[in-house]
Design a protein that fits this description.
Helix content of chain B: over 70%
Radius of gyration of chain A: 11 Å
Number of helices of chain B: 5
Structural class of chain B: mainly alpha
Radius of gyration of chain B: 20 Å
Number of strands of chain B: 0
Number of strands of chain A: 2
Oligomer: heterodimer
Number of helices of chain A: 5
Shape of chain A: globular
Distance between the termini of chain A: 11 Å
Low-confidence stretches of chain A: none
Structural class of chain A: mainly alpha
Chain lengths: 69, 165
């Protein structure tokens, strides 16, 4: 897909582990891991809100659009 | 969402226990009807018909109990296992409408041949097989079978929801 999840980059910038973020966002590790690896089809606004709050970032920081050739 | 699943799990625990209780009742009903048939030396085939209905009630309630138990375990009604179990209930219900009245004369004659050594004379009454009651029961089975299509669509939606973080 042309939308790439940059969650791993944001987590590395904030030096936050997957477990810690999952705990802060009230999500399961499996769900967050699937989101990080781009296996999910979509994200709820409330999930995005929790992630942005935990990582102190904007939704645009979490996603990137790469044009497919 | 999680709260709804927890509520569903709690609710279906009691329901599945009720179903397994009904399975036990159906089992004893079948046994008592068979016993009554043997005690009357096969003179009342009504007991044999009732015992066959008892067997079908046993199987249907067992399948329903498995559906509810799976629901209690996973908290999600739209799974392949539940769809297959409900389809099985539909098929068993259709058979429950046809089998008791059509097979009882055969079993009755077999019983008489074994116990009394009388000649085999099977009289299959199509009128009693295709009576309003049996047609109604088989239509209920058809309706249950068709309703599984709702579960098939529900499963597709469930897969979609599960892939949203």
């Amino acid at each position: 897909m042309a939308i790439i999840v940059r969650l791993d980059r944001m987590m590395a910038d904030r030096k936050m582990s997957l477990n810690e973020l999952a705990e802060r966002c009230d999500m399961t590790n499996v769900n967050l891991s699937n989101l990080k690896t781009g296996k999910m089809k979509g994200v709820r606004f409330e999930t995005m809100d929790a992630i942005c709050k935990a990582l102190d970032c904007q939704p645009g920081d979490l996603f990137e659009y790469v044009k497919e050739e | 969402m999680n709260k709804n699943i927890e509520t569903l799990k709690k609710r279906t625990k009691g329901d599945s226990l009720c179903c397994f209780f009904a399975v036990v009742i159906a089992f004893f009903m079948t046994i008592s009807e068979l016993k009554a048939y043997i005690v009357t030396e096969g003179n009342n085939p009504e007991h044999l018909i009732n015992s066959m209905y008892g067997i079908f009630a046993f199987v249907i309630m067992l399948l329903m109990g498995l559906v509810l138990f799976d629901l209690h375990k996973n908290g999600k009604p739209f799974s392949k296992k539940i769809i297959n179990l409900i389809r099985a209930i539909a098929i068993v219900t259709i058979f429950a409408a046809i089998v008791p009245d059509s097979f009882t004369p055969i079993l009755d004659e077999v019983y008489h041949v074994v116990t009394k050594n009388s000649a085999v004379y099977i009289k299959l009454d199509i009128g009693s097989v295709l009576c309003v009651k049996n047609i109604f029961i088989s239509l209920i089975g058809v309706v249950i079978g068709i309703s599984t299509e709702i579960f098939v669509y529900g499963r597709a939606l469930q897969d979609d929801v599960d892939s949203i973080a």
